[in-house]
Amino acid sequence: MKSLSPRHLLTASAVALTMGLGIAGAQQATDVSPEASRQAQEAANNNQPLSVTTDQASAPGVMPQSFADLVEQVAPAVVNITTTSVVSQPTGGPGFPEGSPFSDLFRDFGFPGMPGPDGQRRPQRSNALGSGFVISADGYIVTNNHVIDGADEIEIEFYAGNTLPAEVVGTDPNTDVALLKVKSDDALPFVKFGNSDDARVGDWVLALGNPLGQGFSASSGIVSARNRELSGTYDDYLQTDAAINRGNSGGPLFNLNGEVIGVNTAILSPNGGSIGIGFSMAANVVSKVVDQLREYGETRRGWLGVKIQDVTPDMAEALALTASEGAMVTDVPDGPAKDAGMQAGDVIISFDGGAVEDTRQLVRRVAEAPAGEAVDVVVLRNGDERTLQVTLGRREVAEGTSNAPVTSTTPGEQDLLGMTVATITPEIAAELGLSRDAQGLVVKTTDPEGVAAEKGLAPGDLIVEAGQQPVTSLEELEESVAAAREAGRKSVLLLIRRAGEPRFVALPVQE
After folding, report:
1. Distance (Å, rounded) from C-alpha 155 to C-alpha 90?
2. What is the 3-state composition of the chain as percent helix, strand, coil, each rounded to the nearest 5?
């Protein structure tokens, strides 16, 4: 598993060298009664997921008297995962001086990190532990990608104590999801995904897994927060205070109905142990990834082909928008959106029939849409709504950029809005590392106490648009600022490029 220290996330996979920590034994299925085991196998034979009955489930908002019935019902589908890989030896070994009796002893018996009798360091096999859960009677298993990443061998230990080798069907590092497959003569008890969007802050949840290599373990808590974003493009985590530690990675987070609403992935911790802040990737994200891995062995996400940013309140005011919602298009390289007529400066307010609140929501919805599908995208352009039909590409194979045409400019510079801007000359382009065909106005200096610096502009920024119109001369920039003032606007919208990356900035224009 990952755990987030004050500076970084840590995974929740417990690593143990074969001569170090060792590997935990069987999961010890003594907590499941023979009757529950019989019912679990019967459900598997009938291709039915494990779940609690209506009379077992607690009423909404009521604290369960015990989680024992829920644990007994779903535990047979939870597995331990042991991976084996060959790692190169570290440069250093135990702290014994060369030539000492201890050095000879550990060399002769192959202690990790010590060279052999021939003086050569030997490769070393290591084991890593994690968790997972079965999602089908025919042996598909979900876990975290970081649990099995780089593994040479993967072994699945089931709740009853039996083990089977597993093969990787597919992985998705973007969501840290991996799909495995085992071959079993008997149908395997399995669980199903629930609707993670139905999970509310305060709902009871149950985490099952293999913390610290100690074997099967259960912990309970509540959903502490929703829609957490850690570091990935497609992140949608449920935060929970259920105890999650190293080794819980890939294990399921259940609701009281016995449905998987999350995959335990990361913890926030200053010391590597649980402090009550854990993160589970939402089931609605995981289930879609799993479906694609199961069908294709890889993900096939939709691709719109735009660069976007959130609409800030001052940007909304500059564009005369009623609310700071939607996704502002900052650049449209060659791709599906450009083919459909989308332009930089458009504000995407609807995608495939659903309103777009921000860039994060748009990215997720585009990724979930099938590649090759034609969807309606509604944009605001110069105050008017336009509906564009875009045939989505596939993100995994997307390539291509657009190059602006070469235009001539008249050299010069001027102080404006707390900054000094200049037209591009060959000397300035070379100094800033810009291409010879770069166009726009260069920010040469900014007043540390001026509005430009306050809004984040810096020397070297390239202004390419003002008021959603291209600017290639100082006169065009002045005209855009004057037009914003005459229209009663508080700000003018600038499109800048910094190190090649586009971004909109709403710059105040009050005199």
Report:
1. 26
2. 20, 35, 45
The domains found in the chain, sorted by start residue, are 304-397 (2.30.42.10), 413-508 (2.30.42.10)
From 176, 235, 241, 461, the catalytic residue: 176
pLDDT in tens, the chain (511 residues): 554 543 345 554 443 332 222 333 445 444 677 888 888 888 888 889 987 765 556 555 567 788 999 999 999 999 999 998 766 555 444 444 444 444 454 444 444 555 555 555 555 667 788 999 999 999 999 999 999 998 889 999 998 889 999 999 999 998 999 999 999 999 999 999 999 999 999 999 999 998 877 778 899 999 999 988 876 678 889 999 998 888 888 999 999 999 999 999 988 877 677 788 899 999 999 999 999 999 989 988 889 989 999 998 988 888 888 888 999 999 888 889 999 999 999 999 999 999 999 888 898 889 888 888 899 999 999 889 999 999 998 887 763 322 233 333 345 678 888 888 888 776 676 666 666 567 788 888 888 878 888 888 888 888 888 888 888 888 888 888 888 888 888 888 888 888 778 888 888 877 6
Question: What distances in angstroms separate CA 396 from CA 162, 235, 299, 356, 432, one per listed residue?
Answer: 38, 17, 8, 23, 32
pTM comes to 0.67
8 catalytic? Reply is no
8 Å CB contact between 172 and 82: no
CB 367 within 8 A of CB 301: yes
H-helix or E-strand containing 362? helix 359-368
Binding residues: 146, 176, 247-249
- Out of 136, 146, 280, 346, the active site residue is 146
> Residue 240: in which H helix or E strand, if any?
strand 237-240
CA distances in angstroms from 72 to 56, 413, 484, listed in the order given = 11, 75, 67
249 tagged catalytic:
yes
Is residue 380 exposed (0-12), middle (13-18) or buried (19+ Cβ within 10 Å)?
A: buried
For 194-211, b where at least 16 C-beta lie within 10 A, e where not — what string?
bebeebeeebbbbbbbbb
Measured between alpha carbons, how far is 260 from 132 in angstroms, rounded to an integer?
11
3-state secondary structure of 219: strand
Which residues make up each annotated binding site for substrate?
Answer: 146, 176, 247-249
**Which run of H or of E encompasses 453?**
helix 451-454
Q: Name the catalytic one among 224, 249, 274, 350.
A: 249
- What is the C-alpha end-to-end distance of the chain, expressed in Å? 55
d(CA 141, CA 415): 63
Q: Are strands 260-268 and 2-4 parallel, antiparallel or unpaired?
A: parallel
